[in-house]
Design brief:
Blueprint lengths: L14 E5 L6 H12 L2 E4 H7 L8 H13 L5 H15 L5 E4 L5 H13 L6 E7 L2 H10 L1 E3 L5 E2 L18 E3 L5 H11 L1 H13 L3 E5 L4 H13 L1
Helix pairs in contact: 1-9, 4-5, 6-7, 7-8
Length: 231
């Protein structure tokens, strides 16, 4: 049976997936969409971290979560897709969902598309690619900071560069311990604009992609994201 949704916010889709190189601001923009339009914000990183203390995990799942969080390795496609599918199932008749960094491989994109078609949800999906150069990604990731108190990430973009204290809680800011050059270079090799291009091409061919220039300020990118998801 075909499921039809009615969204009061123009033509916004029920399920949005934000993709982009590390440091592109996809997490920041996903949170803004969530706050403005009542969407549920889902970061696969948060999903993995929230599973750490679960007692029903298999040994394999424990290794996957540890390697992903501690070593920055990408979790296997089947594991990520399991998390994504569960979130979609829980929200088919509920609020919209904006996924932050959920799709990292073409295989994941293909499997998600197959799932959406089986559920008659393919028309309620849009991918938003926030693109920056790999050089910009490296600069942002080596200089961004995190609040010691609330763990808010402070991007190295626009006026945020001048922050001395956390704008959210007033806590002290520091460089993240995992934001060292070797780790960042590896992340960009695996997840940067070059690595991301096959996924961008896949969604472009499906006519399910909006590309946003992420090189501007947070506020400028926010305007472009709004335009993309409402068109």
């Amino acid at each position: 049976m075909k499921i039809i949704f009615h969204n009061i916010f123009h033509n916004m889709k029920k399920f949005l997936i934000f993709i982009g190189p590390p440091g592109s601001g996809k997490g920041t923009q996903a949170k803004k969409v969530s706050a403005k339009y009542g969407y549920k914000h889902v970061s696969t990183g948060d999903l993995l971290r929230n599973m750490i203390n679960r007692t029903d995990l298999t040994d394999e799942e424990k290794v996957i979560i540890n390697d992903s969080i501690q070593l920055g390795k990408l979790a296997p496609d089947w594991f990520i897709l399991k998390l994504v599918f569960n979130v979609i199932e829980e929200n088919i008749f509920g609020q919209g969902v904006v996924f932050d960094g959920a799709i990292r491989t073409v295989n994941q994109a293909e499997e998600l598309q197959n799932y959406l078609e089986k559920k008659a949800l393919e028309k309620e999906f849009l991918a938003v690619a926030i693109m920056i150069s790999d050089e910009e990604a490296f600069a942002r990731l080596t200089k961004r900071r995190v609040c010691e108190a609330c763990q808010e990430i402070i991007p190295w973009v626009g006026k945020a560069k001048d922050y001395i204290k956390c704008p959210k809680c007033g806590g002290n800011l520091k460089i993240r311990h995992d934001d060292n050059e070797e780790v960042i270079k590896d992340r960009i090799d695996r997840q940067g604009s070059v690595a991301l291009q096959p996924i961008v091409d896949y969604y472009k061919n499906l006519n399910k992609l909006k590309i946003v220039d992420g090189m501007g300020t947070i506020e400028e990118v926010e305007v472009e994201v709004d335009r993309a998801i409402k068109s």
